[in-house]
Amino acid sequence: MRSVIFSQAGDAASVARVADVPDAPAPRADEIQLRVSLSPVHRGDLVGTEAVSLPADESRHVRLGSEAVGVVTTVGDAVCNLRVGDRVAVFPAPGAWAESVTVPAEAAVNVPETVSDEIASILLVNTITSRDVLRAVSDLRGTTATVDDTPLVVSAAASAVGKLVVRQALDRRWPVIAVVRSDRSAATVRKLFPDVPVVVTGNDGWQGELRGSCWCEAAAGHRRCSRWRFRTGDPAVPRRRGNPGRVG
To answer: Does the pLDDT at position 232 exceed 90?
Structure first.
């Protein structure tokens, strides 16, 4: 079968290649095999080519990919909740950038017909990541002096994870401020969340706009907004010290 592989460490654009490789192994009792329909490119997949230690022998290789959607072709003897022909999303699925992949049955989730392959292929890792972020924020809010009306500032809010974090934060009735890089991303966020303030870091004066949004969100809860320190990249958690730093 064909798979995307690499046999030496380096930038993915330079070391990754499509090659003919042995078929995915037959599933063990608690595993399934699926024909891959679509597998996304995650940042972690690309970074992994730089961090992995490989033997000098280039006949040895690593198959890339970590998440996919596809159709079950074989099930192990102990698998009772899936059957041949089921359409599933899988994660983690090492080697998912291939025509087929074998994974533990517990890594698979049935996908409804109403969900496209494009959505299903990123269904699990982004959902798990956003859930873990919200759990961490919830723990922080519960163990510090942060009050219920303290705004949650979400950087990269137009990304798949960012949108999930915003949605779940709103469901918890938390005030949210979305931070994005461009007007195009801002339009995406405003369409999905019309009541959420959006700050564009590509525009002049965004720091003052962010402070103003913090003030307005806090004022809506009848409480003055504290000064904040933000962390770049991940959804940012407001903190009660320091000055606003670079966001997004």
So the answer is: no
CA distance 161 to 158: 8
CA distance 224 to 207: 18
* Omega within 30 of 0 (cis) for the link into 92: yes
CA torsion 121→127→133→136, rounded to 10°?
-140
For the chain, residues classed under CATH 3.40.50.720 are 125-220
Q: CA angle, corner 207, sides to 204 and 213, nearest 5?
A: 115
Q: Which CATH number applies to 2-115: 3.90.180.10, 1.10.1740.10, 3.90.1150.10, 1.10.10.10? A: 3.90.180.10
Instruction: Give the pTM.
Output: 0.74
pLDDT tier, 63 (very low <50, low <70, confident <90, very high otherwise): very high
Radius of gyration of the chain (CA): 22
